[in-house]
Amino acid sequence: MLDVEARPGVRSIDAEPPTDEAQRAEAPLLRSFDLSRVGGEVFAWAGVLLVGVALRLASLSGGALSAEGARHLFTAFLFFLVGVTDTAARLGPALAGIGTVVAALWLRPYLGRAGALFAGLLLAVSPSLVYYARRDQPDAYATFFGTLLLVAV
Fold it and tell me: Higher model confidence: residue 78 or residue 103?
């Protein structure tokens, strides 16, 4: 077995986890995640995101595809990955719709915690946004990238 000299500041694998803040900053992988520090806002955002995901992914296979929806490159890529189905064709707009809900989280500096959460909830349950996120039309992409543009500016 190799005999390696201990270098200063390097701990062995069997060493105790760090106790003070300086040592914790040096060893981020040895920290545990304290769920008691997670506030209600995290659970509220998780609920909003769950509602948005459920509304957008439910019944993706209902209805027929339009001719222009099958022409999108992203749709063709999804067809390649998961097979040629109506659900695969609608997965791209559904993911864009979910991304629109997630983008509301980035509005927190401008709207505040409650305002961003309320905006995310409105985006998650908006009937028109849910409708377009289930269709194979480019409207969900436009909404998603428009929201990203709003956040970026």
Answer: 103
